[in-house]
Amino acid sequence: LLREELVKAFPDKSKFNPTLEEINALEYLNCVVKETLRINSPVSGFRRINLKDKVFGDYFVPKGTVITIALSALHRLPSIWGPTANNFEPKRWLDPSLTKNITSLDYLPFNNGPRGCIGGKVALAEFKLLLSMLIRNFVFQPIEGFHIRKRVFPLTKPDPYLGLAVSIVES
């Protein structure tokens, strides 16, 4: 679906020079990027220190408590993302019944607020542009018999590496 959207938007791959507005207007590309960042956030989590005594629901959290937000857990909560929370499903971002309930506190690939990633918007633009260029021009297939594991610490990445067979898109 992503390649189809890119071919439709940019039929002549030799003249592929999109603007930021053109890239941001690609609906399925945005879904793929959001879903990728939901499943594989740039960081696994972050910590904050509670500055004053606070009650959250039935829980008392005293001043000075270290609070850890595990994005890998938050971004896969079935109560937020539905029964397919662990699956990579870009189309979920097209479902208004799901997205209407997602807040800036449920989806935090770059954090938010004053401690949010200062380069988040640049990273998103680079990600969309690079992914568009790669998918528009190449086909990626796993190498038969090659098994990839996921290493989480210190950063999420494939282990030992990402082995792919690459071919050029002819049209």
TrEMBL record:
Q: Name one GO molecular function term.
A: oxidoreductase activity, acting on paired donors, with incorporation or reduction of molecular oxygen
Task: Please indicate if the UniProt record lists Transcription regulation as a keyword.
Answer: no
Tree of life domain: Eukaryota
Q: Which cofactors?
A: heme
- Any keyword Heme? yes
Query: Any idea which UniProt keywords this protein has?
Result: Heme, Iron, Metal-binding, Monooxygenase, Oxidoreductase
Quick one: which residues bind heme? Answer: 117
The similarity annotation says: Belongs to the cytochrome P450 family.
Output this protein's name.
Answer: Cytochrome P450
Q: Which species is this UniProt entry from?
A: Glomus cerebriforme
